[in-house]
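Predict structure. Chain length: 711.
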Amino acid sequence: MENQQSRHSKEGGTVFVQEPNLKSGVGGLRDLHNLRWVGKVCGEGESLDKLVERSWLGEAEAKQVEQSFDFLMMMREWLHAGQGGAGDVLSLRRQGELAEAMGYPQPNILRKSEALMREVYGHMRTLNLLCNSTSTRLCQQRLGRPRGLWSFFAGWRGARRAADGFILQGAELQPEHPKVFDEDPARMVRVFRILQDQGSVPGAELKALMRTRFALLTEAVAQQKEVQETFLHILRQKGKVGRILRTMHETGVLGRMVPEFAPLTCLVQHEFFHRYTADEHTLVCLEQLDAMLGSKEPDLRKYAELYAKVEVPEILALAVLLHDTGKAELTRNHEEVGAANAVAVARRFGFWGRELQLMTFLVDHHMTLGTFARKNLDEPATIRDLARIVRDQERLDLLMLISAADVRAVAGKNNWSSWRELLVWNLYQKTKQMLAGEEEFLRVEDEKRAKQKEEVRAILSTTFTEDEVSQHLERMGPAYVRMCPPALVMRHLGAVHEFLERRISGADTLVPLVKWLDQSEEGHTEVIIVTWNRERLFSKIAGSFAVAGLNILSANIFTRRDDVVVDTFQVCNERMEPVTHPIDRSTFEKTLTEALGETEDHLNERIAEVGPTLWQRSLGEAEFPASLRVDQTSESGRTLIHVEAPDRVGLLHALTRAIADEGMQISGARITTEKGAALDTFLIEENSGEAVRGEDRLARLIQRLKGVVSR
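Prediction complete.
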């Protein structure tokens, strides 16, 4: 059993990993092998028939185990045949290939893959739950607990009655007898309140009994007032909800209490930010919410303060539970379907008026903070629009908690999710101030910007003249100081100073100035590029990085009012290491200088000759579809283009070239590459500097960009 626990830990600790190991993963083939060995060692027989005969497994359970094992064996054989040899990891690339080869009838490769993986996860979940539960019970018997399934209370030393037909053995809760749920089906929910109140865990016998008897929790029983109140009591216990709801889901009880959640079981999500199945992601969200309460961690302390003030924790928990239920309908706007589900659940649990409206609002707008955080947060109109949507502080606080739990529930923290979380928190703070009064908000924002400028001025004045510092900050615009730390501003101004000195010395100022700074601890190199603004500049920079075989991890671009461009890139080589080799650096600089002096055709030809980097080849094909969103709601009328797409060589160049081909330019951008995904935001305008006008022109650009990301 220790060996199995170690093996499971190495394979991700959950059934729902992105690329499951069919043999050694959680719920893999070895889980049944392990059960058979445990059965043999414990003298109960190593075959499923023997375990059924000796009442360790029910006949229906044994049949489920056999079916799941047979399915995974079939999948493993398909996998071996497809890859021409051994290997048990069902990679992203193989998922689509096998779904196609096995004849899944869905209309496209993503839907085929979803259907296949839903079956895979379902069967692995079955093997994990049944094999692990039975193995645990066999071990308990081996360790000296009485033989016979229901002799707990009489035979276990130290056992004590907990309540309502259940006994406590150490930290484990067990049933007094096998008819405990038949006597009163409402105990199927009350037992979870006992688990929560006692801080105990369900023993293997209790889990097995709940899984075989959960059908007793009929719709009529689930809608009894006492049962519903018990469930709501569980949801009201801040910091103690996630663990209990996970166990309810594992035993089938959660789907009986909230049928709207059941279709999310093992539902694969082909989205970059949701690498778990939909049900697992939701449960992790609830556990993240629990982790916030009373946390001393600096990153969580601010959320702990918000959570402590929540007056309706059951509404918040239900909103989190329901926030992605619309995805089961496979519609584009899952928030609307989820909101309809929220209305149904609220009414069923007796919520009306303000509470119903609040739950529906939270589900319908659970993505709103994330959407607004992509906009220009320095525009008062952005904050004003969000304040009009949320209307009061309670709604804003609850949305912030849902958004934070959602971001933190992605599969592993990374630079991108941390950056998103920071943006959303800044948006929350600004909107909080706006709700307190717009006049006060504007005053505080002005003071904040002035303070930031003074801090930067104080640092820069030790190296540069006061006039030079003032001109640089003024020409870079108000967002610059907020987005760039003083050390980076210092490097920018130093590069600009050196670039402009060329003009005085008579050097060729059309050649861009390129500065390289290795950030070894962070695994990348910072590249600052200073040059005069010109058409297709950003496109040619991106293309030159591609020709040099360098990966762009992130980028911030600024254009000063005197037409000097100051761009900062974080790049790495194909081994995901800083760019330290002189040849790599010189290849980029030479390519960029040549590209700026000629048409883009030659650059395009050179990019076409470049194959995928070692890093990109190792990722295989990304498992999420490309998405492209347009935002024209800013007060200035400027247009934001948001792109999420599988990364490939030359993608950024192709995107920026398409924008340039439509007679538009990029005035700002946030470029990020994370785990094989390109996550880019472009602020575009006409070449004249005016806002993009004409729906036809914008529609044509969107079609062109869609063609790029889907290629």
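Summary: The chain has four domains: 1-144, 149-257, 271-409, 499-709.
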